[in-house]
Amino acid sequence: MSTPHREHPDAVVAPAPTMWPMLAALGATLVFAGLVTHVVATIVGAVLFVISAIGWFREVLPEEATEIVPFVAAERRARAVVASTRTVEHLHPGGPGGHRMRLPVEIHPYTAGLRGGVVGGAVMALLACLFGLIDQHSVWYPINLLAASAVPSLATASVPELMQFSALGLVVATIVHGLMSLLVGMLYAMILPMLPRQPILLGGLIGPLLWTAIIWASLGIVNPTLEERIHWGWFIASQIGFGLVAGIVIARSEKIQTMQALPIALRAGIEGGMPGHGGEDEK
């Protein structure tokens, strides 16, 4: 018995194209679609699926339907691939003649972001306490307002009660303000190297304004008490104070190069290094 390849040496025997699988899938889809639409859709889908299944089986039983696909003429075929022993020049990241690198090439260390968050948070707290002294003659007023987001008793407190010292309010406000200052400081450390010009001005003005807009839109859900009694002028001033101080602290820190300038072996942590980068050849 001859094989299809021997019967057709200049062609390929392939399964014949058929529409039955697609129609069977459509029928199955209509069956389930009728469960949430109308029973008629289910009936039509079931009939279509049965007919398609029978037609699909007849494509392979008792004999498989095939078609002959002739080969492309020899003169039109692609030439055989020949291995080459030549080498190519490797690209070196950065530097003269190197390929382009991802920006920024240098970044501020994360520790600078933490320092900026601490110093900026301290300036922001001083401005908030100054607002409390001028507006309500109490430094505890802004502290208790901030703590009202997590302390139910302060959320329902009156203005005279918010002007009184609260140990729980002080602890909660310190934790909330400290964590937020550290997180925003880290965010500044990552964003400032990406700003092309005047990073301190952009980070100290545009950033706080955007942050204020986000807080304005969500404050009614997070801290309704603060939304009712907040003074947006002082709030914006404290945000700008944080942005400017944190931006100055972070911008004055010494930048470090990103790992993209290092060879792949060093980035992968392979011991021994490479020549010119702390390997054995430098000893």
Name the structural class.
mainly alpha
Low-confidence segments: 1-5, 272-283
Instruction: Name the average pLDDT.
Output: 79
Radius of gyration: 36 Å
Number of domains: 2
Residues in helix, %: 55-70%
Strand order, sheet with most strands: 1-2
Reported for the largest beta sheet, the result is:
2 strands, antiparallel
Our count of helices gives 12
SSE arrangement:
Blueprint lengths: L3 H4 L3 E5 L4 H14 L5 H22 L5 E5 L35 E2 L2 H27 L3 H8 L4 H4 L3 H4 L4 H25 L7 H24 L1 H6 L2 H20 L4 E2 L6 H4 L16
Helix pairs in contact: 2-3, 4-5, 4-8, 4-11, 5-8, 9-11
Describe the structure.
The chain has 283 residues and is mostly helical. It folds into 2 domains: 9-76, Orthogonal Bundle (Helix Hairpins); 109-254, no CATH class. The protein contains 12 helices and 4 strands, in the order H-E-H-H-E-E-H-H-H-H-H-H-H-H-E-H. The chain has helices at residues 4-7, 20-33, 39-60, 110-136, 140-147, 152-155, 159-162, 167-191, 199-222, 224-229, 232-251, 264-267; strands spanning 11-15, 66-70, 106-107, 256-257. It has a two-stranded antiparallel ribbon. It has a two-stranded antiparallel ribbon with strand order 3-4. The model is unreliable at 1-5 and 272-283 (pLDDT under 50).
